[in-house]
Description:
454 residues, alpha/beta, Rossmann fold, 3 domains, eleven-stranded mixed beta sheet, three-stranded antiparallel beta sheet, 45% helix
Amino acid sequence: MRYHDFTLTITEHAGQGYDLAAVSSETGRVSVVLPLPSPELQAQLGRVSEVLRGGAADTTARAAGEALFRWVTAGPVESHLRVAWDRAQRDRAGLRIRLSIDPPEVAAWPWELLRDPARGHVFATAPSTLLVRYYDQAQHFGSLAEQETDLPLNLLLVLPTIPDLQLAQERSNIERVVAAMPDVLRLHVLDGLVTRTALADALLVGDYDIIHFSGHGTFTNGRGYLSLNRADGTPDWLEGTALAQIAVNYRSTRLVLLNACSSGRVDDAQAFQGLAPQLVRLGVPAVIAMQYPIGDAAAITFAHEFYKALCVGAGAGQVDAAVAYARSMLALVHPRSPAWAAPVLYTHAADGVIYRLTSRGAGPAALDPILRRARLETLQASLDESAALDDDFKGADAASLFAWRQTLRRAEEAYRARLDDPQAEVQALARRGLALAQQRLQAVDAALAAAARK
């Protein structure tokens, strides 16, 4: 899919508030001064952070996303956005919303929740409206789209020794993802005592496209640090600049993924969000950081769907589209969880492309079996998850019921689109899923009607 760009740049204002420049690649520029966030907005953002860290999904996330939208589209910005969005749709293109936010207190907000209340649209979960944290570094690092590679991509999983983390489970999760895509990803593991020297040596010896780090972090004085090991096993807190110096010394590194496992530590998420922009500014093409902890099932779904979208098909190499697709699958497969809001993408790739496959690496004959397996696994996971949702909407309020209806409508569309799949197994799963979604929709509509009569 082609994309039109819509860039929102927020900087400090000399007086009260923030300067906002909204620049559309098709319709020009609008500038306004945003007010300081109201106490109500700050309270909403505080509440939603607690909700998302706890792994619960409710109307708090939706309300926060709509409040963010109203704040950032003040004055003429909303109409400017809608004109750009409608122009993209008319041109049969998507809209890439690039957030370039300087004030750290504003950058820390959960922008991935951004939701248009008028259209009921969550930007981050729709592949037609990409949402990325963007840092314009093209003058320093040049075009990434010119860098070619072959499949499989080499992924280095870094697992330092950390007593309170279940790193064996994390390794098992990633091995499970890679095993499903042997022609797409090749896994290499660096575990045990992972010192700075060990990491640097591993990157020197190998030619890794992706570094996937799982472990702890800490956030101090506005800077993020991640935990490696000293030779005696004690933590060695590595600052973002030092990590970037190690990573960018090797031209093959295109993506770093920072994951706090399922520790649930607030420090981990803050540290990784602090590290990510540092790495991008210093040359790493793209960084994905989890701003909230997610469970193992959701982590497997995200990794599988993300790496599949990044490596195969017409959009191979387009990291922003791959993240959007993976978020959309999290929302579909795990509808009770806010896990889709956890992944945050930071990049300096203007068009989202961090590499292009060579003609040898992009052959459809090699990729079709991977896509067929992926479709089956995605549908099966969605149905297995859905089977456990029988009574979840009973007793819910009207707002929650409307949210359920939206989720089920998305599921209905997804299953209907697969009824004509060339694979008989996919067709059978799609029929089962469609019937289940329609049954649930009838129950939700009945619950809404009953609520209206009260």
